Amino acid sequence: MVSEDISNLKQERERERVGKKMIELMKLREKRKTKEKESKETGKMRWSSFGTSISCVFFWWLCKFMLEEFSKNQEWAWLEKLIKFCYYTFIIVGILAIIISIYLIFFGYPKICEEVKQLKAKEKQLEQEIAKQ
């Protein structure tokens, strides 16, 4: 009777340990999935900011060209002011987009990918521990 109680207690404790590890595994999987989603979004954002910087450089060049043309004619003075505003706006936005894309290419995206790899490794390790028990 006593040995049966002891074996039942051992089995119950073992089930609790496995249950805790299963819960930990589920949380880890959820965290990995969110990181993978974040990785995909960061990859998309990396390319969109790169495209934004290229388009800002193009529009900056266009505004520069238009300023050269309209500065000769005084009838278009109001348009010249608008183009100057756009000119400086495109410079600022372009520089910011270039900085963001450089940050994402060299720092943000690789860091997130490394975190995803680590989470996958932890997940496999937990699965192996659960399979052993």
Description:
The structure is a single chain. This protein has 133 residues and is mainly α. It has one domain (2-132). The protein is 94% helix and 0% strand. It has two helices and no strands. It is rod-shaped. It starts with a helix and ends with a helix.
Characterize the overall form. rod-shaped
Note the quaternary state here. single chain
Q: Bin the helical content.
A: over 70%
Number of strands: 0
| Individual helix count | 2
Main attributes?
rod-shaped; 2 helices; 133 residues; 94% helix
Fold blueprint:
Blueprint: H1 2-70, H2 77-132
Helix pairs in contact: 1-2
Question: Quick recap of the structure?
Answer:
With 133 residues, the protein is mainly α. The protein has two helices and no strands.
